[in-house]
Design brief:
The complex is a heterodimer. Chain A is of the alpha/beta class. Chain A has helices at residues 121-130, 143-146, 171-178, 180-193, 208-217, 238-246, 266-277, 308-314, 357-360, 371-375, 382-390, 394-399, 410-414, 421-438; strands spanning 24-26, 32-36, 46-47, 54-55, 60-63, 72-73, 78-87, 93-101, 157-161, 198-204, 224-229, 261-265, 284-290, 298-303, 324-327, 334-335, 349-353. The chains are: A alpha/beta, B mainly alpha. The interface between A and B is large, with 81 and 57 residues.
Chain lengths: 439, 343
C-alpha cells in the first residue's frame, strides 16, 4: 500500500488508547439545554420561538440568517425558558435559546425524502441545508454551500475526511467502526450530487481496523476508494488531505472546489445520511471525553445543547482538578474558561489535562534550529513570521506568506525554545484580516 | 507580544462585544491559545546532545596529546561559561548559562586549538568568542558567526606562532595537511585513526564520525550541510587538486585538518547556517568550494575555519534567495499574489 502523505508535520503523543476501545454511548439530555444562535461560520441564525413556547424534539427553533448560515434544532422537548446571551466555549457571550427539558422526548414527525437514489440534486441539497448541517470537524462551515460549487460537473473527487489526525480524539474512529454503513451512505449521497466525482475515504493508518472494514464494505463499489494515510499531524487539514489523496494543491486563497475536490468530515457525512435517509435534522454528535484528568474516558453521542459539565459528569468527573480543559483536540482546540458552556455542532471533544505543558514551559530565545520550517505543512517560515508579528510588521508578514498559515500548531509544538510561534502568527493574521476588511 | 496577550487573557476579564460586561470571571483553568502540547526537546537538551557527541573527539584528543589537552578544554569551558554568566549579570538579563550553549562553544574552541597553546591565550579566545561574537550581538541565536570559530580565528591572527605550533613530544613533524601540501607522503590510516599532530579534536576522523552519527541518529543535525560540504570539497579537490583521480590524496584531504570537525559540528551550527532546505545545500557547496580554494591556492594548508566564517556572513542572503514557496503556490503565482495584494 503506498503511503499517502504531505511534507512536514509532527508526531505528538497520540493518546488515543484512553478512549479508543470505549463504544459510543447515548447520553440523556440534561434539564437545561442551551442553543447559541451562532454555531457556524456565517450569519447567526434567527430565533423562531419565543419565551414560553413549547418545542418538540427535532423542531426547528432558529432559521438560517442568510445563505451562509444554518438553522438550529432542539434535541429535547420542553419549553423555551428564555432567550439571552450565554457564554460559549470561546469565552464570548452569544445570544442563545435556553430550553427547559420536560424529559418526555416528544418528537416531531420526520419527513425523509424517500429513496434518495430517485431524488434530484436540489432535493438532496435542500434536505441537507434544512437539517442545519455544518462542517463538524471544528470549522462549522455550512455544508450545503460546500456542496453547491459553481460547476458541480467539475468536481472529480469527494473526500471523506476520516483522518482524525488530532491526538486523543476517537469520535471518528468509533463512528467508522460502529456505523460504517451511515458513513458510506452519506458519501454516496454526496457522490449523487457530483456525477463525475470519485469518492475517497481517507483514514490515517493508525486505524487499520477501520481501513480494513471500510475496504471490505466498499469492495463492490467502483466509485469509492479507501486510502490509508501516513499517521502524522495535520494529515486531516483540508489542504494537506487534498494533496495527500489526489496530489492537487491549493493555497489559502483557493477553495477545494477550485481543484475539483469536496472534503467532508466523518460526522458531517453521517449527519447527511441521517438528514436525507431518515429526515432527521442535526441534533446530536459524537464527543470524545478524554485526557489524564478524566476518571472514565468515553465516547458519547451527545444531544447538542447539553452543557459540558453534564457531559463531564457522565464520564465520572475529574480524577483530580485539571490545570487545563480543552474543547477539541490538543493541537487546535480551545482552552476553556469553565465547564458551564453548551456543546455545539462543532464540539468534537472535551479534553482535560492534569498538567498543562504550556503553562510550565519557559520561553527562551530562538536558536534558529529550523525545526519550525521543517515541520510547517504550509511551507512558510514560522520563526521569521513570528518575529514580524511581534514587531507588528504586517508588510513583511504578508510578503513572507504569513496569510498562508493554517494555524495547525506544528511550529509551537516542535519549538525547543518553547516560543509561542503559532500564537504570534495567529494574532497577526487576525489583525491583518481586520485591516483588510476596514479598507 | 503573544505572551502579553496570553497573560492578559489569564488575568483580566474580557469585554464582550459591548453587550454585557461580565461580572467577576474567576478562571480556575489555564487558558492559552492552541496548541496545548509541546515536544520534549529543549534548547538545553539539544546542547547536551552536542556535548555528548563531542566527547569521543575530546576523549581521543586527551588520549593523544595528554593531560595538557584536558587542561585547555577545562580552561575554555570555564571562561566561556563565566563570560556568559557575567555578561548576563552586568546587563541585568535573565541568566542563560543553563542552556549549555556556552559549554558547547568552549569545548568546540578547545578542540580547535593546538595543545601547546598557553592556557591564558585559550582563555582570551573563549572570552572573545562569548563576549564579542555571541553576547554583544544579543546572545544565543543572534550571533552571525560561529562563536568558537570566531574565537579561533581571533587567536590565529593575534597569536599566529603559538596557534600554528603543533610540535609535541610525540609528533615532531608538520601536520599531515601541511606535509601533503609540501608534497610529502602521509599515512592515511594514521589520519583516519587520529594518530597525527593537529589541533586537539580534529585529528581523529573516526572519533568525530562517531559523534556525528550520534547527532544524525538523534535528529539534532541532518546531512544537508555536511554532505553538500564534503562532496563539493571532494569534487573541487578532484578537479583542481592537480592529482587527478588519486584516492590516497583525496582521502588525506578529507581526513586531514579540520574538515570533518568543521563539516559536522561547526557548519551545522543552528544560528549561523541557513534554515531553509535549499539554503543549507547552497551553503554547504559554498563552504566546500571556499575550503578548496583556501587549501589548494592559499598560503596555509588549512581553510575550514575561514571558509565557514565567510559562509556565515552570506547566510542572510542565502536564506532570502532560497525562501520556501508556500504550499499551493508556484514561484510565479506567489510573486503575482504578493504584487496583486489580493486576499
Amino acid at each position: 500500500m503506498p503511503k499517502f502523505s504531505f511534507a512536514g508535520g509532527v508526531h505528538p503523543n497520540e493518546g488515543k488508547d484512553l478512549s479508543k476501545d470505549k463504544p459510543i454511548t447515548d447520553l440523556k439530555a440534561g434539564k437545561i439545554m442551551v442553543y447559541p444562535l451562532s454555531q457556524h461560520i456565517g450569519a447567526p441564525a434567527k430565533a423562531l420561538v419565543a419565551k414560553g413556547d413549547r418545542v418538540l424534539r427535532g423542531q426547528k427553533i432558529a432559521e438560517a440568517g442568510g445563505f451562509v448560515s444554518a438553522p438550529i434544532y432542539s434535541a429535547v422537548s420542553g419549553f423555551v425558558k428564555v432567550i439571552e446571551p450565554r457564554r460559549v466555549v470561546t469565552g464570548d457571550m452569544v445570544e442563545s435559546i435556553i430550553i427547559e427539558n420536560d424529559g418526555m422526548d416528544v418528537e416531531v414527525n420526520y419527513q425523509p425524502i424517500g429513496d434518495w437514489n430517485m431524488a434530484s440534486g436540489e432535493e438532496i441539497l435542500k434536505a441537507i441545508q434544512e437539517a442545519g448541517i455544518v462542517g463538524m470537524g471544528g470549522a462549522g462551515f455550512p455544508t450545503h454551500i460546500k456542496l453547491s460549487p459553481k460547476e458541480p460537473e467539475e468536481i472529480t473527487y469527494v473526500i471523506a475526511n476520516c483522518a482524525e489526525c488530532e491526538p486523543y480524539l476517537t469520535s471518528d474512529y468509533r463512528r467508522m467502526l460502529e456505523e460504517p454503513e451511515k458513513l458510506i451512505g452519506g458519501l454516496k449521497i454526496v457522490l449523487r450530487l457530483f456525477e463525475n466525482a470519485h469518492g475517497i475515504i481517507a483514514i490515517e493508518d493508525n486505524k487499520p481496523d477501520c481501513i480494513a472494514l471500510l475496504k471490505k464494505m466498499t469492495r463492490e463499489d467502483k466509485r469509492i476508494t479507501v486510502k490509508g494515510l501516513q499517521t502524522k499531524y495535520p494529515q486531516g487539514a483540508e489542504r494537506m488531505l487534498i494533496q495527500a489523496t489526489t496530489g492537487r494543491k491549493i493555497n489559502s486563497t483557493m477553495l477545494p472546489a477550485d481543484v475539483g475536490c469536496v472534503v467532508d468530515n466523518t460526522d458531517t457525512l453521517v449527519s447527511i445520511y441521517n438528514a436525507v435517509v431518515e429526515g432527521k435534522p442535526l441534533m446530536e454528535r459524537i464527543v470524545t471525553v478524554t485526557g489524564d484528568a478524566i476518571k472514565d474516558p468515553r465516547n458519547f453521542k451527545v444531544p447538542i445543547g447539553m452543557s459540558y459539565q453534564e457531559i463531564l459528569d457522565a464520564a465520572g468527573g475529574f480524577v483530580t482538578k485539571p490545570e487545563k480543559i480543552i474543547c477539541g483536540g490538543p493541537m487546535m482546540g480551545f482552552a476553556m474558561f469553565g465547564l458551564d458552556v453548551p456543546s455545539t455542532k462543532t464540539s468534537t471533544a472535551l479534553l482535560a489535562f492534569i498538567h498543562d505543558e504550556v503553562a510550565h514551559s519557559e520561553t527562551s530565545a530562538c536558536i534558529k534550529c529550523g525545526r519550525c520550517v521543517e515541520v510547517c505543512p504550509g511551507r512558510i517560515m514560522p520563526n521569521r513570521l513570528a518575529a514580524c508579528a511581534d514587531h507588528f510588521d504586517s508588510e513583511a508578514f504578508v510578503a513572507l506568506g504569513g496569510m498562508e498559515c493554517c494555524e495547525c500548531g506544528c511550529c509551537s509544538y516542535i519549538c525547543p525554545a518553547k516560543r509561542p510561534l503559532t500564537q504570534s502568527i495567529k494574532s497577526m493574521r487576525k489583525i491583518e484580516l481586520a485591516n483588510r476588511r476596514k479598507k | 507580544m503573544a505572551e502579553e496577550v496570553l497573560e492578559k487573557n489569564n488575568t483580566t476579564e474580557k469585554e464582550v462585544q459591548g453587550k454585557k460586561v461580565n461580572q467577576e470571571l474567576p478562571i480556575p483553568y489555564q487558558v492559552s491559545s492552541n496548541p496545548h502540547v509541546r515536544s520534549k526537546s529543549t534548547t538545553g537538551s539539544i546542547m547536551l546532545m552536542v556535548i555528548i557527541a563531542l566527547l569521543p573527539a575530546a576523549g581521543f584528543g586527551i588520549y593523544n596529546f595528554g593531560l595538557k589537552a584536558l587542561l585547555l578544554i577545562a580552561v575554555t569551558i570555564c571562561f566561556a561559561v563565566g563570560t556568559e554568566a557575567l555578561c548576563n549579570i552586568v546587563r541585568k538579563q535573565k541568566q542563560t548559562v543553563s542552556d549549555l550553549s556556552a559549554i558547547v562553544t568552549g569545548l568546540l574552541l578547545a578542540l580547535n586549538l593546538p595543545v601547546n597553546l598557553p592556557w591564558w591565550m585559550a582563555a582570551i579566545g573563549a572570552v572573545f568568542a562569548i563576549l564579542v561574537v555571541k553576547m554583544l550581538f544579543g546572545g544565543i541565536g543572534q550571533n552571525f558567526m560561529n562563536p568558537a570559530l570566531g574565537g579561533r580565528c581571533f587567536l590565529l591572527i593575534a597569536f599566529p606562532l603559538q596557534m600554528t605550533n603543533f610540535i609535541t613530544d610525540a609528533y615532531t613533524g608538520a601536520t599531515p595537511l601541511a606535509a601533503l601540501k609540501s608534497g610529502e607522503a602521509v599515512k592515511v590510516t594514521d589520519m583516519i585513526l587520529g594518530k597525527t599532530s593537529g589541533t586537539i579534536g580534529e585529528t581523529s576522523m573516526i572519533a568525530i564520525l562517531i559523534g556525528a552519527c550520534f547527532l544524525l541518529i538523534t535528529g539534532i543535525i541532518d546531512l544537508k550541510v555536511p554532505a553538500s560540504y564534503i562532496l563539493s570539497f571532494a569534487l573541487f579537490v578532484l578537479v583542481f587538486g592537480g592529482h587527478g583521480w588519486d584516492p590516497a590524496y583525496l582521502a588525506a584531504q578529507l581526513a586531514g585538518g579540520g574538515l570533518m570537525l568543521g563539516a559536522f559540528f561547526m557548519a551545522t551550527d543552528y544560528a549561523t547556517r541557513p534554515i531553509t532546505k535549499w539554503g543549507q545545500i547552497v551553503y554547504g557547496i559554498f563552504l566546500g568550494v571556499m575550503t578548496g580554494i583556501f587549501r589548494l591556492f592559499g598560503p596555509s594548508a588549512e581553510g575550514v575555519s575561514y571558509a565557514i566564517i565567510i559562509g556565515n556572513l552570506l547566510v542572510p542572503l542565502i536564506e532570502k534567495a532560497t525562501a520556501p514557496i508556500p504550499f499551493g503556490y508556484t514561484r510565479a503565482s506567489f510573486k503575482a499574489q504578493k504584487k496583486g495584494g489580493k486576499k
